[in-house]
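README: folding subset

This subset contains proteins for which both the sequence and a predicted structure token string are available. Records are stored as plain text. Below is the entry for Nucleoporin (800 residues), shown exactly as it appears on disk.
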Amino acid sequence: MVDFAAALENASNVLNAEFAKDAQAVPDLGDTLTAPGGQASASYSVFPNDTRFSNSTTAIDHTKPCYYYYYHKLFLWDYIEGQEISSFVDQPDVITNVALVKPKQGLFIDEINSILVICTPVGSKRREIKLYATDFTVPTDVEMTSVAGTADGRIFMAGAQDGSLYELHYQETESWFGKRVQLINHSVGGMSSLLPRFSMSSSDYRIVSVVSDLSRNCFYTLNGKSNISIYRPDGEKSLQHVQTISNISKLAQDKAPGSPAITPATFTIVGLHVVEPAELRSGIQLLAITSNGVRLYFSPSGGFGYSSYVSGSATGSRQLYLVHVRLPPPNLIHPDEHTQPYRQPNSCYVDGVTIAAQPGDADATDYILCMSPDLTQIGATGQLNPQQAPIPQVMHYGSAPMSTRPPLTEHATLLSIPRRTWAMAPVIRPAPPSPPTGTPAPTVFNELAAQFSSHPRQFMILTNVGLTFLVKRRALDYLKADIEELQLEGNVQPLMEFRDSFGRDQTCAMLLGLASGNTFLDPTNPSSSTLSAVSPDMVAVAKQVFYDFGERPTWTERIIYGADNQGTATFSGRREGLALYLARLVWPIWKSKITVVGPSGQQRSTIPDSILDSIQKNVFSLKDFLDKNPHLFQSSPTDAGNARTGAGEQEAWKAEQTSVAELLMLATRTIEAVAFVLLLNDYKLGELVAKCDAETQKLIAGLTYQDLITTQNGMTISRALVNVIIDQQIGQQLSVDNISEILQHRCGSFCSTDDVMLYKAKENVRKAAETRSPTERQKWLAESLRLFIEGARILEFDKL
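--- output ---
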């Protein structure tokens, strides 16, 4: 007989072990930058002749200048007849494509000779965007550029003509001491702030960029001399000048002496990018990119012998120091044979991925330099033959300690896009649930852990002919491409190289995600609630590769004198892949509390229903796939018939099948637990919790999804919440048959047959109390007593 509680506990321990592995598998940015190699690095994996390792590009190309769309607005331009522009803004959905086509004959009047086809994501719900006229205006003689806002609503900007730092200050009403809207010049003081036209500064020191750091409540400015200043809002209309970092080219030369990419004559910083605290365990805070692709990392920590010249009133504030110089790829061949130097006025950085634009020689083409961490080089993912990237030949300055961690190695590729780049920005993704404090969590570099629960990173690039999307390819996308190559050309070598690069267990986990149709498999599908369509042929290949790459479990004997010999099973890659994939599916919720206090003071669900629905679909698809393919975790006929198969191997297979069965029990319980929480949300979770006794409410406030799924506490609390629903139904004189049927169908382990008997017994007591017929009353009470007796074994003693 299987001990259900023990099986769930064992499987839960397996998942917790996988969480810990993922948290340690890939270092964060700070760890790789302080690895051997000193204070500068230039290690890259470049594949100039292999497009499989390039970032995928999806281009929306509109070369016909007769129409242009932006969000839900479509603009039509009659460029032959004149400058008149017509607009179509009646439909609310974001336009994804537009085409001008010929109509079918006979369906329209003769005057209609073309049809404009407008494509939108029909049926998707989107936020309504409302615009309100605030009448907050202020005249100025200076053109404003590079606007940035703070977390508390203050607005700062740079003056194009004078390079000064301005603040647009606004308040609800006008007063004796302040206008409703005014422009404050923070670069000058006193009465001169009222006269911006006469405060012209030297062109070299004019501010050219303002970047806000919302997480740290500060913002940065960049001037024409490539000096970086840091400001912190300090009270109404005032600022604290924290620091100015100057002479940065000399600081960079000291860390990378002799590098041709750093010369005072050509050194120009063209972009500042905030490194979010969530990205790093270390303190790197700011990334600056130069015109020729050098990246400069700044941190508040001045350790490891790092130092720089700083100025400013920074009393009590942590100052930034240049801690690492990342040189551009030295072995990346430019298509135009380096006839012009790198020049990157447009750049973008997020989660360790950097992209930057540079113009080509031809007027019709720009090039996008894309760089992202190479997980096969910096991670510990069980690679068969990990090949550490060579440590850059850069002199080691300062006192940075040597470490066994590998240095940062990145994929680098150069992509061409049509025409000139105007702007670029990352596509905003839904933020995943934050793990509780102290919970091991994978770094943002670890895409292997996130690729089954989030969409791939995308960037938008606006050019003078349209909008281009760059989609970063994940390991899962490489694997899918390798399987497609195997199907088309019969070449198995790329799959072998993939397994050797990412490791057996990681590969098996990804194969399961591919075969079961993970909802995040298709990088072009914005929905996370629809299972990906995978062809039967690809599923068949993925299953076969999963079985072949997974190998067999093994048994290691331990001889103990004076006692029976014991042993330990080493699981196959199939079981390890299953554990890893299941752990990554449930990671977003596993350690999270089920409820949190909402604005009204009542408890509400911590995790949005959309995330719960996505997790439930993916776990269910995995369970369904394995139920239909039980042979994946069984020994092959040749193994079973092999005379050399000893007792040890049989024990290994037995241990593996037991562990797999426990993981599948946990998967089933997880599916039902999510369904249970979604059902509670339908019945207004906050109101249900409020009707529980104080002790139960206290337990619910601290209950995590792991507790709900695997502990007796979770069972007790779930039964208490169901009792509240049943009492609510009875109080409203509604039958409990419907809710009982729903509970047993969606989440049977949270509503047993005994539970249903007790619910019906309660309902019969209500019927007996309501009837006026003594005979009917006796019948309902007798039936109620019978049901209570049958279900008494699950009643707590005080309630009994």
